[in-house]
């Protein structure tokens, strides 16, 4: 049902239509979709993806987003509640009850919070893939949920606040003895360690700061990359919707994960681009009759959103292994600054290297 709602967002938000009115209807003959035909997945399969009245085909995206969202939620539930992937106490399901006596509410809260992020990522990726935009209505709404959740479930929740004391207070978190010792909470890491006195572990202030720092870092990292790359390249190369996507993820996962997922996401985008070249060697021409024809601005330019969303999820779920290995630079301000400067200069140099002489493109054909 969430996937079905995401489909409504993908079909309507780019045209600035209302998402609640009117009810679902065929884009070709404008007749209402029957309630029973609107059942997720089954409705699409029963009509074989065609309108009941005029036989106009609906985009296959309706089916894939519904199936994909369902599978993603199932995988999230199995990983977090079934297998205790992130090591959160009192969240793992046990056939005899949740962890003996602790309440099931905790598992429910963790799963729902993260499911909101996953749904937001799927919606942003699906709209970006189809329309090359990521609507702010999605990213800012989901980010707000991320910040509220951060305030209600501050690091190291669901660990008790005392769990933060495995690293003695006021000790730098980069000492070798404490690498890999940070307890991972729903907010995997706090925004800085050692935490400051005005925002102790487990306080809503720390949760708020961690979410806000994550959102800011996600947005600024993409904007910095965009500025450096485009300055070197001499033309536009990235959309600001990508900055909003990482901003949204940062409100849930903190600045460390989103900064790293920018690199993982670039790599994932590259793989997607290669896969697309293999699957669809020619330019796509799948403007299905069921959706209005609005071709993407440039069919050769792959949207960054889907790769970025994959990068976020991959980094987040690899964190139990990646986190301990990146603890040193991430909590050392000097080292972090040096790394950022080196990567910024590298990016600028790479973009300058890629800069092409002024293109003598043929005059655009008027349509
Ligand atoms: Zn129709």
TrEMBL record:
It holds the Pfam family Peptidase_A24. Residues 1-78 form the Prepilin peptidase A24 N-terminal domain. InterPro entries: Prepilin_IV_endopep_pep, Prepilin_pept_A24_N, Prepilin_peptidase/N-MTase. One of its GO terms (biological process) is signal peptide processing. It is found in: Cell membrane. It comes from the Bacteria. Residues 208-272 form the Prepilin type IV endopeptidase peptidase domain. Coiled coil: none annotated. Gene3D superfamilies: 1.20.120.1220. Its main location: membrane. PANTHER family: PREPILIN LEADER PEPTIDASE_N-METHYLTRANSFERASE-RELATED (PTHR30487:SF0), TYPE 4 PREPILIN-LIKE PROTEINS LEADER PEPTIDE-PROCESSING ENZYME (PTHR30487). Belongs to the peptidase A24 family. This is Prepilin peptidase. The lineage of its organism: Bacteria, Pseudomonadati, Planctomycetota, Planctomycetia, Gemmatales.
């Amino acid at each position: 049902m969430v996937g079905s709602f995401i489909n409504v967002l993908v079909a309507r938000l780019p045209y600035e239509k209302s998402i609640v009115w009117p009810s679902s209807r065929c884009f070709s003959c404008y007749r209402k979709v029957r309630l029973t035909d609107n059942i997720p997945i089954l409705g699409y399969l029963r009509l074989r993806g065609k309108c009941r009245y005029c036989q106009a085909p609906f985009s296959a995206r309706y089916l894939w987003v519904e199936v994909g969202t369902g599978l993603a939620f199932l995988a999230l539930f199995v990983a977090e509640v079934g297998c205790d992937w992130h090591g959160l106490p009192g969240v793992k399901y046990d056939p005899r009850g949740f962890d003996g006596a602790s309440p099931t509410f905790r598992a429910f809260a963790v799963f729902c919070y993260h499911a909101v992020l996953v749904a937001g990522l799927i919606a942003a990726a699906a709209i970006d893939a189809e329309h090359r935009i990521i609507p702010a209505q999605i990213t800012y709404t989901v980010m707000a949920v991320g910040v509220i959740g951060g305030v209600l479930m501050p690091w190291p929740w669901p660990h008790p606040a005392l769990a933060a004391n495995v690293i003695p207070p006021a000790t730098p978190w980069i000492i070798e003895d404490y690498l890999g010792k940070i307890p991972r909470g729903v907010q995997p890491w706090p925004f800085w360690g050692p935490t400051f006195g005005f925002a102790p572990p487990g306080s809503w202030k720390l949760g708020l700061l961690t979410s806000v720092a994550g959102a800011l870092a996600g947005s600024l990292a993409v904007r910095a990359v965009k500025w450096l790359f485009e300055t070197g390249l001499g033309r536009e190369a990235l959309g600001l919707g990508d900055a909003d996507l990482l901003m949204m993820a940062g409100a849930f996962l903190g600045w460390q994960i989103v900064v790293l997922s920018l690199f993982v996401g670039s790599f994932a985008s590259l793989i997607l681009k290669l896969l697309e070249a293999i699957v669809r060697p020619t330019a796509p021409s799948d403007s299905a009759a069921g959706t209005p024809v609005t071709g993407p601005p440039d069919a050769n330019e792959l949207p960054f959103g889907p790769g970025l969303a994959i990068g976020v999820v991959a980094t987040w779920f690899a964190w139990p292994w990646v986190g301990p290995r990146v603890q040193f630079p991430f909590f050392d301000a000097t080292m972090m600054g040096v790394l950022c400067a080196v990567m910024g200069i590298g990016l600028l140099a790479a973009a300058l290297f890629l800069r092409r002489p002024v293109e003598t493109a043929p005059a655009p054909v008027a349509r």
